[in-house]
Design brief:
Blueprint (H helix, E strand, L loop, with lengths): L1 E4 L10 E3 L3 H8 L1 H6 L1 E2 L1
Length: 40
């Protein structure tokens, strides 16, 4: 699974694709943001 990394600038158009666990983004950014920026 590839997870899109959200930069601290909150400019969601500028993103980096990295490989991390899904739970990391659920806990840090919330479920809505995780689903919006997740690639399967």
């Amino acid at each position: 699974m590839k997870i899109i990394k959200i930069p601290k600038t909150k400019n969601y158009l500028k993103i980096d694709i990295i490989t991390l666990e899904p739970e990391y983004y659920k806990n840090k950014f919330g479920n809505n943001l995780f689903r919006a920026f997740s690639i399967y």
